[in-house]
Amino acid sequence: MEYIENIQTEDKTATIYTDSQMSLDSFKINTNHTFFSEEIRKKLAEIGTTNWTIQFCWVKAHVGIQGNELADTLAKEVATNVDLIESYMKVPKSVVISELSEISVETWRREWDLTTKGEITKEYFPVVADRLNMNINIILKFTTIVTNHGNTSSYLHRFKIIDAPTCACGSSDQTIDPILYECALINQERESLIPTVVKTDVWLIGKKHLIRKHYQPFVKFINKFFINLLTTLIYSNNSAIICNNTCNYY
Ligand SMILES: [Zn+2]
User: Fold this and answer.
1) Whole-model pTM above 0.70?
2) Hey, which end of the chain has fewer CB within 10 Å, N or C?
3) What is the distance between the alpha carbons of residues 147 and 49, in angstroms, rounded to a whole number?
């Protein structure tokens, strides 16, 4: 923008491209008074008086767009220039935090898109941003159900802690899908979830929509049963009784 301000030209229109959606949003929103957004507004107002028309446009980062790559390189050079500490100090902490947050979310998104791990968790949370928009109470059982890392038979069997991956109901291996959708031992508990889901969706609903659209009933459902009991029942000659009230198992 300083360059625009100082050049002499007949055509007074310009487009500024940026890969930072957060920056674009920050100076569009009038209630945002960070140092950065205020500086941009101030500069726009100054340039506006010289009849310039400036528009802003978002571009995807790290996909080889020449101008964007050049801007990144220059930004890195500036960031690593020890002689410019004073100018860096003028940036408020809030801007540094939000920029770092944006970078870390983008890194997380890229790694999540590329990884072949977390297959089950990806079914619940295919998009990192969607997960970040949710306020989730992380407890052990929740983690087990969204990762299959915990006290399910299939997981314990994988690590040779128990002899078989089978569920106590005997119909299948005890993995997450049977627990959510099929296991007859928790039909009654599941009945509390299904009517809520079918008000707006169909049953069987996919995990992504189940957790995003029906988070509260989903959590209520998983809190109604005890995975340990589903796991261990088969090893006690069917003499154990499924208990919904008094067990201390999670
Ligand atoms: Zn079962």
Assistant:
1) no
2) C
3) 57
Contacts of range 17-22, beta carbons closer than 8 Å, 24 or more positions apart:
17/56, 17/57, 17/58, 17/59, 17/65, 17/67, 17/68, 18/56, 18/57, 18/58, 18/59, 19/58, 19/59, 19/60, 19/61, 19/62, 19/68, 20/58, 20/99, 20/102, 21/58, 22/98, 22/99, 22/102
Q: Using the mean position of ligand 1's atoms as its centre, give its distance from the Cα of residue 36 in Å.
A: 56
The string of pLDDT tens digits covering residues 208-234 is 999 999 999 999 999 998 887 666 544
Q: How far is the CA of 190 from the centre of ligand 1 (A)?
A: 12
Centre of ligand 1 from the C-alpha of residue 14, in Å: 64
